[in-house]
Structure formats: C-alpha cells, structure tokens
Amino acid sequence: MAMSNGNSYRLCSEPMPPATEVVIVDVCFLQRFNMLGKEPCALMMAEVISLHGSSYETDISELSVVDYCEEVIAECDFVDHGITDEQVLLWYSNLPTNQQQYLRKLFKDGADLKLLFRAKHVSGKAMLLSCDWRLLRACEKHGVSHACFKMAMLSFHRDQCESILDNKEFGTDAMRVIGGKDPFFHFDNTRRCHHCDQNGKCPARVF
Predict the structure, then answer these.
(1) Per-residue model confidence (pLDDT) at position 40
(2) Tens-place pLDDT, residues 185-196
(3) pTM of the model
(4) Minimal CB count within 10 Å: which of 3, 86, 103, 109?
(5) φ, ψ for residue 146 (rounded to 5)?
(6) Which residues in 19-28 are b (16+ Cβ under 10 Å) and which e?
(7) Rounded CA gap, 13 and 24, in Å?
(8) How far is CA 171 from CA 23, 37, 99, 134, 196, in A?
(9) What is the DSSP string of the chain?
(10) Which residues 6+ apart lie within 8 Å of 188 measured at CB?
C-alpha cells in the first residue's frame, strides 16, 4: 500500500509478501512509533506491521492503556493473543529444569511469557515484534522469528525501495542520532543486539 500526505513515493513494483501469517506485537514495540512523531506514527504503524504478516495479535489489556496514535492502533485491528495463565503454567511445568530456570531468571513480566508461548504455538508461521531484550533473547533461544523496531523499520525501508529511512519527512532521522540511548530505536546503539542476534547477522546491527 502506498503512503502519501500529498506527495508520492516510489514503491517497489513487486512489494515483499508477508513472510509470516501471524504478527505478535509487544506494546513496547508500538511505543517507538511515537518517538518518530505523531504524523509519521499515523503514516507508518499499520504499514510496518502488515509487512510482517496478515493478522495482528497483542496483549489487549496492555494495549488498552496506550494513549498515543489511538486511531492508527484501532485501524490495525489487533486481537488478543488469548493465552491464559493456566496454559503458560502447564507448558512451563513440562519444560526441562534448566529451561525453567532460564525463563524464571529472564522474565519479570508474565505478559511477555504469554507472548513467547503464543509465538511458539501458532499454527503456521509467526513473527514476534518487541523492544524488550529479555523477550527477544528468549525468541532467539527458542527459534521464534523476531525483530526489534530497528529491524522492522529497515525491512520496511527496503520494501519501499529505500525511501523511508532517507526521508526526514517520516521522522526517521531521529533513528540515526549518534550516541542515541535507545538500543532498539537508534541504529548507532547496538549494546542489546547480542541478545536477539547472537550470530551477528542482523542487517540492522551493522546498518
């Protein structure tokens, strides 16, 4: 889908098809759109998420407290992941002891553990979008497809024939700030990359 606010942008002749079926979105991932500015947030949020899949899930209880880009979030038509505490507890109790200990140390938020569980048990392919290093690290360890905000934006940039990250109109110049403090927003900051990219192959890591 082309985006426009009065200007036309060159799109690839054959847009990249979604690589997954279900996109599971951590609410902290959405917060980074707000860092681009209100107008870019409205222009890009649904587009970036749709690049990664055809249906969108999140923790609706956490989404309900979001107070930015509400109209755009509503357009994304998120549904709740539907995972219960009982389901996660049963799965967790059946894991080997070392895996239980690993997850216990890693997760401070039961909501994040539900997102991981859902991503692992989707019927078909799933992509988990997050900016929580613990959740991204667990995805890496458990073989769940995942991306932080930087990687998702880089994928979108390439899908749009490299027109997004090079256009200040989209607020993405903020992502190029040298010495930026957010490792999931600023390309210059790679201090968390080893958690979700242990093999050093993520394009956003060396962008």
Answers:
(1) 87
(2) 999 999 999 999
(3) 0.87
(4) 86
(5) -150, 160
(6) ebebbbbbbb
(7) 28
(8) 24, 6, 41, 27, 25
(9) ----SSS-----SSPPPPS-SEEEE-HHHHHHHHHH-HHHHHHHHHHHHHTT-SEEEE-HHHHTT--SSHHHHHHTT-EE----HHHHHHHHHTS-HHHHHHHHHH-S-HHHHHHHHHHHT-SS-EEEE---HHHHHHHHHHT--EE-HHHHHHHHHHHTTS-STT-GGGTGGGGG-TT-S-TTT-TT--TTHHHH-TTS--GGGG-
(10) 176, 177, 178, 179, 180
The DSSP bridge partners found for residue 57 are 24, 79
Sign of CA dihedral 53, 56, 62, 65: positive
**Could you tell me which residues come within 8 angstroms of residue 113 by beta carbon, excluding any fewer than 6 positions away?**
88, 92, 103, 107
Q: Which of 23, 20, 24, 1 is nearest to 11 (CA)?
A: 1
Lookup: tokens for 7: 């200007």
For 81-110, how does the pLDDT look when each residue is reduced to its tens digit (9 = 90+)?
999 999 998 998 998 999 888 888 888 778
The answer for residues whose C-beta is within 8 angstroms of residue 105's C-beta and 6 or more apart is: none
* Parallel, antiparallel or unpaired: strands 55-58 and 146-147: unpaired
User: Which two tokens mark 190?
Assistant: 């790679």
